[in-house]
Automatic annotation (TrEMBL):
One of the record's GO molecular function terms: lipid-A-disaccharide synthase activity
EC number per UniProt: 2.4.1.182
Database matches in InterPro entries: Glyco_trans_19
Record PANTHER family: LIPID-A-DISACCHARIDE SYNTHASE, LIPID-A-DISACCHARIDE SYNTHASE, MITOCHONDRIAL-RELATED
Reaction(s) the record says it catalyses: a lipid X + a UDP-2-N,3-O-bis[(3R)-3-hydroxyacyl]-alpha-D-glucosamine = a lipid A disaccharide + UDP + H(+)
Role according to the record: Condensation of UDP-2,3-diacylglucosamine and 2,3-diacylglucosamine-1-phosphate to form lipid A disaccharide, a precursor of lipid A, a phosphorylated glycolipid that anchors the lipopolysaccharide to the outer membrane of the cell.
Protein name: Lipid-A-disaccharide synthase
One GO BP: lipid A biosynthetic process
Cellular component GO terms, alphabetical: membrane
Domain of life: Bacteria
Keyword presence, Ribonucleoprotein: no
Keywords: Glycosyltransferase, Lipid A biosynthesis, Lipid biosynthesis, Lipid metabolism, Transferase
């Protein structure tokens, strides 16, 4: 089979790469062409564009990058037609991928969507576009599956690929002493900083996270370097603060950290599944205006983190836009770093999260379901 895959950020690159690996194990003729990142590239095939060259965040970034966004749309459309894939597999990245779904459907290319865009959280009208242009949806969260079923979309739940990535991580049995020695860190307990994978996220969130460094000198703060960022690119934010950067080892850092400050997204779920207490910090362009628009107009769910959405409660504190303050962040982090009731309550909630999420094997199940669906869809084409 010929697979054209589009992933637009670090988490998509990770999960698409695991899906590609599973395809290779089940389809000896698998051929890949894709938009993604380094992890997908490791699986072979042809990388057309790297996500670090295409990702934009927020309204302002979109407005100032309209020309390059249009060029990327055109390049992708032409490339899909030239490649003539058996299926186009879209991985999250709704702004770009829903446009590609419409284009591909118009040109009779099968469209499968893996890892749903979060339309259940905002702009639920987009489900009509999905129903009209996506042949099959493969979801990774139970509440997503129910949402799409209720709207008449062809949908299957295949488990969550984060569980696969965590189960297959390197150095999962490593001791704290070996971790710090290997990364030339000191022996203080660690606070992990996960400030996002995109420039906009990092520039809006990392400076506030770094304000905590001087508040807790007995801990070493360590930035989980994003795959698309070089270590030296963090230096303008760090300046003279006592902060380390560890790249390509987010899971290894989280399993050793006492607590973490995390931007919203898949990272909140990964942090919880690695049993690291966390505070969710998310700021973006627009301040109070963006907060008003998000909460009153756009966001249709009560939480912004996957942990809280899955548990249907505020298990982890969410500091979003105008709710964010350095005092709140310091107070919550202090509780999580101690052996406090708050820390123990969060860890108990993580136990329930593990129970609801189940075990690994999602990538192989998804590949199997897609291959089975492809045979049926090609027969009826």
């Amino acid at each position: 089979m010929r697979y054209y895959i589009i992933a637009g950020e670090a988490s998509g690159d990770l999960h698409a790469s695991n899906l590609m690996k599973a395809f290779k194990e089940q389809d000896a003729q698998a051929d890949f062409r894709y938009w993604g990142g380094d992890l997908m590239k490791e699986q072979g095939g042809t990388l057309v564009r790297h996500y670090k060259d295409t990702a934009v965040m927020g309204l302002w970034d979109v407005l100032t990058n309209l020309n390059s966004i249009k060029k990327n749309f055109k390049l992708c459309q032409e490339d899909i037609l030239d490649y003539q894939p058996d299926v186009l597999i879209l991985v999250d990245y709704a702004g770009f991928n829903l446009r590609m779904a419409k284009f591909a459907h118009r040109h009779n290319v099968l469209v499968y969507y893996y890892i749903s865009p979060k339309i259940w959280a905002w702009n639920q009208k987009r489900v009509k576009k999905i129903k009209a242009t996506v042949d099959r949806m493969f979801t990774i969260l139970p509440f997503e599956t129910k949402f799409f079923e209720e709207h008449g979309v062809e949908v299957q739940y295949s488990g969550n690929p984060v569980l696969d990535a965590i189960a297959n991580r390197d150095n999962k049995d490593e001791s704290f002493e070996d971790f710090v020695a290997r990364n030339q860190l000191d022996n203080r307990p660690k606070v992990a900083l996960l400030a996002g994978s995109r420039k906009g996220e990092i520039s809006y969130n990392l400076p506030d996270m770094l304000e905590m460094v001087d508040k807790f000198p007995e801990f070493q703060f360590v930035i989980a370097g994003a795959p698309s960022f070089a270590v030296e690119e963090y230096q303008p934010f760090i300046k003279d603060k006592d902060v380390a950067v560890v790249s390509g080892q987010t899971y290894q850092l989280l399993q050793q950290a006492r607590a973490a400050l995390v931007t919203s997204g898949t990272a909140t779920l990964e942090t919880a599944l690695l049993n690291c207490p966390q505070v969710v910090c998310y700021k973006m362009w627009g301040g109070g205006f963006t907060d008003f628009v998000a909460k009153k107009i756009l966001i249709k769910v009560p939480y912004i983190s996957l942990v809280n959405l899955i548990l249907d409660k505020e298990a982890v504190l969410e500091l979003f836009q105008k709710d964010f303050s350095l005092n709140k962040l310091e107070r919550e982090l202090d509780l999580l770093l101690q052996d406090s009731p708050r820390r123990n309550e969060m860890l108990a909630d993580y136990d329930e999260l593990h129970r609801r999420m189940g075990g690994p094997g999602s990538s192989a199940r998804t590949a199997s379901l897609m291959l089975e669906a492809l045979k049926k869809d090609q027969m009826h084409a």
